[in-house]
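Example record

The entry below shows one chain as it appears in the dataset: sequence first, then structure tokens.
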Amino acid sequence: MRDGPHIVRGPDWWLRLNVAWWHLTIGPEYPPNETDLRDSTVFGLELPRRASVAVLATIALILLDQARALVPLFPADGIAGLTPITLQRFVLFLVAPLAIVLVGFRDDPRRYALRLGNWRWGLGLLVAGLVVMTPIIVALAGLESFRAFYGGATAPLGTRLANNLVELIPAEFLLRGFLMFALWRRVGPLGLVLSLVPFVLTHLGKPDVELWSTFVGGAIFAWLDWRTGSILWSALGHVYVLTLMLVAVGGATP
């Protein structure tokens, strides 16, 4: 029962539940600094400088990835077990946006969630989420569409895990670090919603169930990054989910 906007009354269990909910949903603030608020005029349009650069750069980097633009630069058999596409995504999704932050924005990468963040909440929420997701992933792995998509080629588990780490941590930084936090400091929580757009579109071609689930999964990952101030926990969750799927369909062998 609420007596007012900030007063809650009721039995002890209800009060404890409200306190737990408050701790869960009260996240850090990400106030903009003076540079975040600067605009640039382009053909009469007043555009937020950093946010616009982040959006345009993200689009360009994803298009370069889809075109496999950097793949020819790497040996056909990869390097140290890392495939050319994994190496390309490491460069495009981590090195390139990090260079924009450091050289273009002259900013601290920690402001874009490239840090440990609130590790207690991050670790706890990650473990809770994986407990829920594990049986779901195992069940989905039994569907023919998932077995056909993920089980076509096999590789040792260690190789799969290494590639997933080197590919997905950069992907999390690009979308839910670089893009989302640049937007957040101009448009607030709408930045979380906007960051879902490229995340969902980059899953086109995957099984329909997975494609639709990216609305929920992407939002949860983005919320986790907001709550903890770090991309690490969503990245580890992403790596776990994909690696478990590969193991479950036989695409990763011991």
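Notes for this example: The first strand starts at residue 2 and ends at 4. The radius of gyration is 20 Å.
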